[in-house]
Task: structure prediction
Amino acid sequence: MTPEKPRLVVLISGSGSNLQAILDACTAGSLPAQVAAVISNKAEAYGLERARTAGVPALVKAKLKEMDRQVYDVELADLVESFHPDWVVLAGWMRLLSSRFLSRFPNRVVNLHPALPGTFPGTHAIERAFTAWQNGEITHTGVMVHLVPDEGVDNGPLLAAEPLEILPQDTLETLEARVHALEHRLLVETLARLACGKIP
Ligand code: GRF
Result:
């Protein structure tokens, strides 16, 4: 009996291009894991369609305006837990998760952020890096993958980071495309290392 592959539950909020990279790598065998479910807080997230096409359970858990944030996080954790994840992957997930969620998956929540450690935490990171480059403040940006042990924003224990030079001819659009390509590769490589037990 071959042991079951590590189970990933992937949380998304939008296009799901990083989810697609994970799904493709699982199919190709370069990522020895399985996506047990995809959950989005946005019903219109195209990533849900990507999951359905791959035959992966695709669920919506929307945060209703009147819903208490803590209640939402507990219900979201219950839903995630029902798929028995080895890792919970935040891939283009745009909500801050409270400790009510994070404490349910200690050392098991992995986040992808399109900036280098200690730079541009939060939203619009690529845009802010591009502006900083236009102002002559930086020559590089990058991508990182980190654990999410607490409510810190994009600053958990680092699993991987890779710089990306901003080129003289770059526009915001060309930079975004190169950052996303780097995200897709770095996230899959890092998850593969986790799945093989190469990282604690
Ligand atoms: C990515 O830059 C991700 O890091 C950010 O949202 C962008 C879109 O991700 N949070 P995806 O295409 O939905 O995976």
